[in-house]
Amino acid sequence: MTAAGGTLLSAGGLQKSFGGVRAVDGISFEVAAGTIFALIGPNGAGKSTTLNLLSGTYQPDAGTLAFGDRALTGLPAWRRARLGLARTFQKIRLFKQLSVLDNVLVGFHVHHRMPAWQYVLPGPARRADAARCRDEAQALLEFVGLGAVGATRAGALAYGQQRLLEIARALATRPTLFMLDEPAAGLNGAEVEFLVQRLGALRDRGITLIVVEHNMDLVMSVAEHVFVMDHGRFLFEGTPKQVQENPEVIAAYLGGELL
Fold it and tell me: Residues near 71 by Cβ (< 8 Å), separated by ≥ 6?
Protein backbone atom coordinates (compact mmCIF):
# COMPACT_ATOMS: atom_id res chain seq x y z
CA MET A 1 0.00 0.00 0.00
CA THR A 2 2.83 2.40 0.89
CA ALA A 3 6.50 2.24 -0.05
CA ALA A 4 8.97 1.58 2.74
CA GLY A 5 9.71 4.78 4.61
CA GLY A 6 6.51 6.53 3.48
CA THR A 7 3.65 7.21 5.86
CA LEU A 8 1.50 4.11 6.30
CA LEU A 9 -0.81 5.34 9.10
CA SER A 10 -1.65 8.89 10.10
CA ALA A 11 -3.76 10.13 12.99
CA GLY A 12 -4.88 13.73 13.33
CA GLY A 13 -6.44 15.30 16.42
CA LEU A 14 -7.89 12.08 17.83
CA GLN A 15 -10.24 12.53 20.77
CA LYS A 16 -12.15 9.98 22.85
CA SER A 17 -14.11 10.57 26.06
CA PHE A 18 -15.88 8.23 28.43
CA GLY A 19 -18.39 10.18 30.46
CA GLY A 20 -16.51 13.18 31.78
CA VAL A 21 -13.08 11.64 31.27
CA ARG A 22 -11.18 12.47 28.08
CA ALA A 23 -9.02 9.39 27.61
CA VAL A 24 -7.45 10.64 24.37
CA ASP A 25 -7.11 14.39 23.90
CA GLY A 26 -6.05 15.65 20.47
CA ILE A 27 -3.41 13.05 19.63
CA SER A 28 -1.67 13.31 16.23
CA PHE A 29 1.13 11.17 14.80
CA GLU A 30 2.39 9.37 11.70
CA VAL A 31 3.75 5.84 11.42
CA ALA A 32 6.29 5.17 8.68
CA ALA A 33 5.97 1.97 6.67
CA GLY A 34 8.42 -0.81 7.55
CA THR A 35 9.22 0.51 11.04
CA ILE A 36 8.49 -0.30 14.66
CA PHE A 37 6.59 2.56 16.31
CA ALA A 38 6.30 2.42 20.11
CA LEU A 39 3.49 4.06 22.04
CA ILE A 40 4.40 4.49 25.71
CA GLY A 41 3.30 6.34 28.82
CA PRO A 42 2.41 5.81 32.48
CA ASN A 43 -0.67 3.84 33.50
CA GLY A 44 -3.81 5.70 32.47
CA ALA A 45 -2.02 7.66 29.74
CA GLY A 46 -4.52 6.58 27.07
CA LYS A 47 -2.31 4.15 25.16
CA SER A 48 -4.75 1.24 24.92
CA THR A 49 -7.61 3.60 24.09
CA THR A 50 -5.53 4.99 21.24
CA LEU A 51 -4.88 1.46 19.98
CA ASN A 52 -8.61 0.75 20.18
CA LEU A 53 -9.24 3.82 18.02
CA LEU A 54 -6.69 2.64 15.46
CA SER A 55 -8.08 -0.88 15.28
CA GLY A 56 -11.76 0.13 15.15
CA THR A 57 -12.72 -1.23 18.55
CA TYR A 58 -13.73 2.36 19.33
CA GLN A 59 -14.65 5.20 17.00
CA PRO A 60 -13.18 8.64 17.80
CA ASP A 61 -15.34 11.52 19.00
CA ALA A 62 -13.23 13.78 16.77
CA GLY A 63 -10.17 13.55 14.56
CA THR A 64 -9.06 11.68 11.46
CA LEU A 65 -7.39 8.37 10.69
CA ALA A 66 -5.89 7.26 7.39
CA PHE A 67 -4.24 3.99 6.34
CA GLY A 68 -2.22 4.86 3.28
CA ASP A 69 -4.72 6.66 1.08
CA ARG A 70 -7.76 5.07 2.76
CA ALA A 71 -9.76 6.92 5.42
CA LEU A 72 -10.43 4.69 8.43
CA THR A 73 -12.78 6.89 10.44
CA GLY A 74 -16.14 5.14 10.76
CA LEU A 75 -14.92 1.76 9.51
CA PRO A 76 -15.61 -1.16 11.89
CA ALA A 77 -12.82 -3.42 13.11
CA TRP A 78 -13.59 -6.25 10.67
CA ARG A 79 -13.33 -3.91 7.68
CA ARG A 80 -9.96 -2.67 8.94
CA ALA A 81 -8.77 -6.27 9.32
CA ARG A 82 -9.57 -6.90 5.66
CA LEU A 83 -7.52 -3.81 4.75
CA GLY A 84 -4.48 -5.26 6.52
CA LEU A 85 -4.68 -4.06 10.14
CA ALA A 86 -4.33 -6.66 12.90
CA ARG A 87 -3.85 -6.47 16.63
CA THR A 88 -3.37 -8.38 19.86
CA PHE A 89 -4.97 -7.46 23.18
CA GLN A 90 -3.62 -6.65 26.63
CA LYS A 91 -5.87 -9.39 28.03
CA ILE A 92 -5.35 -12.59 26.07
CA ARG A 93 -8.37 -13.52 23.95
CA LEU A 94 -7.90 -17.09 22.75
CA PHE A 95 -10.41 -19.84 22.02
CA LYS A 96 -9.08 -21.82 24.95
CA GLN A 97 -11.08 -25.00 24.29
CA LEU A 98 -9.76 -25.25 20.72
CA SER A 99 -6.36 -26.62 19.79
CA VAL A 100 -3.37 -24.36 19.27
CA LEU A 101 -3.50 -25.02 15.51
CA ASP A 102 -7.24 -24.36 15.28
CA ASN A 103 -6.78 -21.00 17.01
CA VAL A 104 -4.42 -19.94 14.23
CA LEU A 105 -6.71 -21.33 11.52
CA VAL A 106 -9.46 -18.99 12.75
CA GLY A 107 -7.33 -16.07 11.61
CA PHE A 108 -7.48 -17.17 7.96
CA HIS A 109 -11.21 -16.53 7.65
CA VAL A 110 -10.60 -13.21 5.87
CA HIS A 111 -8.51 -14.87 3.16
CA HIS A 112 -10.36 -18.05 2.14
CA ARG A 113 -10.03 -18.73 -1.58
CA MET A 114 -13.05 -20.70 -2.77
CA PRO A 115 -16.53 -20.21 -4.20
CA ALA A 116 -19.18 -19.42 -1.59
CA TRP A 117 -21.25 -22.49 -2.54
CA GLN A 118 -18.41 -24.81 -1.42
CA TYR A 119 -19.11 -23.84 2.19
CA VAL A 120 -22.32 -25.83 1.74
CA LEU A 121 -21.16 -28.51 -0.72
CA PRO A 122 -17.44 -29.10 -0.09
CA GLY A 123 -15.37 -29.63 -3.22
CA PRO A 124 -11.75 -29.56 -4.45
CA ALA A 125 -11.39 -25.80 -3.91
CA ARG A 126 -12.39 -26.11 -0.27
CA ARG A 127 -10.01 -29.02 0.32
CA ALA A 128 -7.15 -27.13 -1.33
CA ASP A 129 -7.93 -24.01 0.69
CA ALA A 130 -8.01 -26.00 3.95
CA ALA A 131 -4.66 -27.63 3.17
CA ARG A 132 -3.07 -24.30 2.31
CA CYS A 133 -4.33 -22.71 5.52
CA ARG A 134 -3.07 -25.61 7.65
CA ASP A 135 0.38 -25.36 6.09
CA GLU A 136 0.51 -21.60 6.67
CA ALA A 137 -0.80 -21.98 10.22
CA GLN A 138 1.88 -24.54 11.02
CA ALA A 139 4.54 -22.21 9.61
CA LEU A 140 3.28 -19.40 11.86
CA LEU A 141 3.42 -21.70 14.88
CA GLU A 142 7.01 -22.57 13.99
CA PHE A 143 7.77 -18.84 13.75
CA VAL A 144 6.57 -18.19 17.31
CA GLY A 145 8.18 -21.34 18.72
CA LEU A 146 4.98 -23.38 19.10
CA GLY A 147 5.41 -25.75 16.18
CA ALA A 148 5.50 -28.85 18.39
CA VAL A 149 2.28 -28.14 20.32
CA GLY A 150 -0.28 -27.61 17.56
CA ALA A 151 -2.56 -30.37 18.87
CA THR A 152 -2.50 -29.06 22.45
CA ARG A 153 -5.58 -27.34 23.87
CA ALA A 154 -4.84 -23.59 23.86
CA GLY A 155 -5.99 -23.17 27.46
CA ALA A 156 -3.38 -25.69 28.61
CA LEU A 157 -0.45 -23.58 27.38
CA ALA A 158 1.74 -21.62 29.76
CA TYR A 159 0.94 -17.91 29.92
CA GLY A 160 3.88 -16.85 27.78
CA GLN A 161 2.98 -19.41 25.13
CA GLN A 162 -0.58 -18.08 25.03
CA ARG A 163 0.83 -14.63 24.30
CA LEU A 164 2.82 -16.04 21.40
CA LEU A 165 -0.20 -17.96 20.12
CA GLU A 166 -2.24 -14.76 20.01
CA ILE A 167 0.52 -13.21 17.89
CA ALA A 168 0.45 -16.18 15.49
CA ARG A 169 -3.34 -15.96 15.15
CA ALA A 170 -3.20 -12.24 14.36
CA LEU A 171 -0.47 -12.87 11.77
CA ALA A 172 -2.77 -15.35 10.04
CA THR A 173 -4.76 -12.35 8.77
CA ARG A 174 -1.60 -11.30 6.86
CA PRO A 175 -1.40 -7.76 8.21
CA THR A 176 0.42 -4.85 6.69
CA LEU A 177 0.15 -3.05 10.04
CA PHE A 178 0.37 -5.15 13.22
CA MET A 179 -0.54 -3.55 16.56
CA LEU A 180 0.46 -5.24 19.81
CA ASP A 181 -0.93 -4.21 23.21
CA GLU A 182 1.48 -5.08 26.05
CA PRO A 183 2.95 -8.15 24.29
CA ALA A 184 5.62 -8.62 26.98
CA ALA A 185 3.21 -8.49 29.95
CA GLY A 186 3.75 -11.52 32.17
CA LEU A 187 6.73 -12.85 30.19
CA ASN A 188 9.98 -13.91 31.79
CA GLY A 189 13.36 -12.62 30.65
CA ALA A 190 14.00 -15.40 28.12
CA GLU A 191 10.51 -14.99 26.65
CA VAL A 192 10.98 -11.23 26.30
CA GLU A 193 14.28 -11.78 24.49
CA PHE A 194 12.58 -14.22 22.10
CA LEU A 195 9.75 -11.72 21.54
CA VAL A 196 12.27 -8.98 20.69
CA GLN A 197 13.80 -11.28 18.05
CA ARG A 198 10.39 -12.09 16.57
CA LEU A 199 9.37 -8.42 16.37
CA GLY A 200 12.57 -7.65 14.51
CA ALA A 201 11.93 -10.55 12.15
CA LEU A 202 8.43 -9.24 11.39
CA ARG A 203 9.83 -5.82 10.55
CA ASP A 204 12.38 -7.48 8.29
CA ARG A 205 9.46 -9.15 6.49
CA GLY A 206 8.05 -5.71 5.73
CA ILE A 207 5.33 -5.62 8.39
CA THR A 208 4.90 -2.29 10.16
CA LEU A 209 4.48 -2.59 13.93
CA ILE A 210 2.87 -0.41 16.57
CA VAL A 211 3.82 -1.62 20.05
CA VAL A 212 2.15 -0.42 23.25
CA GLU A 213 4.46 -1.56 26.01
CA HIS A 214 5.63 -0.86 29.57
CA ASN A 215 8.81 -2.91 29.22
CA MET A 216 11.27 -0.17 28.38
CA ASP A 217 14.12 -2.57 27.65
CA LEU A 218 11.99 -4.06 24.87
CA VAL A 219 10.94 -0.65 23.56
CA MET A 220 14.46 0.72 23.49
CA SER A 221 15.72 -2.47 21.79
CA VAL A 222 13.30 -2.58 18.87
CA ALA A 223 11.62 0.79 18.24
CA GLU A 224 12.83 3.32 15.69
CA HIS A 225 10.35 5.96 16.85
CA VAL A 226 8.71 6.42 20.26
CA PHE A 227 5.56 8.44 20.96
CA VAL A 228 4.95 9.31 24.62
CA MET A 229 1.50 10.05 26.10
CA ASP A 230 0.49 11.30 29.52
CA HIS A 231 -3.09 11.83 30.74
CA GLY A 232 -4.43 11.33 27.23
CA ARG A 233 -2.21 13.98 25.68
CA PHE A 234 0.96 14.13 23.64
CA LEU A 235 4.06 14.51 25.81
CA PHE A 236 7.07 13.85 23.57
CA GLU A 237 8.19 11.90 20.53
CA GLY A 238 11.55 11.00 19.08
CA THR A 239 14.16 8.29 18.89
CA PRO A 240 14.61 5.94 21.85
CA LYS A 241 17.74 7.86 22.87
CA GLN A 242 15.91 11.19 22.77
CA VAL A 243 13.09 9.76 24.86
CA GLN A 244 15.51 8.41 27.45
CA GLU A 245 17.11 11.83 27.84
CA ASN A 246 13.96 13.97 27.92
CA PRO A 247 13.30 15.40 31.42
CA GLU A 248 9.50 15.58 30.92
CA VAL A 249 9.37 11.90 30.05
CA ILE A 250 11.54 11.01 33.01
CA ALA A 251 9.30 13.05 35.31
CA ALA A 252 6.16 11.36 33.92
CA TYR A 253 7.67 8.00 34.86
CA LEU A 254 8.45 9.32 38.36
CA GLY A 255 12.13 9.72 37.58
CA GLY A 256 14.51 7.08 36.45
CA GLU A 257 12.50 4.23 35.02
CA LEU A 258 13.69 4.95 31.50
CA LEU A 259 17.31 5.39 32.46
Answer: 64, 65
